[in-house]
């Protein structure tokens, strides 16, 4: 059924404030960032390395996408799966996406062991996300309409009826509109416009 399509997701409104977690003199600094693309990760991590130049490790995890999800974890020299995966576990627990959580660690002279590291990175990531501004966003689909000016009234009536958001309006003899709707309404909107003579509709991929 159309209404079962999930078209909302949770993400961060803005970068979080720094969170400090201490365990046996080691300091773990937690940060969370909204993420647009994988390419955004490297400059953020490099920025944290400069800020915490005495940190032996800057471990992190990120996730992008809704439905078709990609993610990465990075232990940055800590024992395998002792840091990146516990951080990613909290991203999943908080059900957020398009997000990067990074934790620079400054060693305090006492080894924590793998179990201690897992707990420390998990707790830092948890505290960071607890103190982040998490918001819900709506997934949208974008369309382009091409039609003759004589169909304007019909087109505008449908746009108002279904609360569609117009983003581009070119009104000439041959009109072009671009609009968006909730993803869950995508097929319904396509069907409505396809039934109108002299109106063509196509889905836009941004």
TrEMBL record:
InterPro entries the record matches: Impact, Impact_N, Impact_N_sf, Ribosomal_Su5_D2-typ_SF
Q: Which residues form the Impact N-terminal domain?
A: 24-128
First and last residue of the signal peptide = none
SUPFAM superfamilies hit by this protein: Ribosomal protein S5 domain 2-like (SSF54211)
Similarity annotation: Belongs to the IMPACT family.
Name under which the protein is recorded = YigZ family protein
Print the organism lineage. Bacteria, Pseudomonadati, Bacteroidota, Flavobacteriia, Flavobacteriales
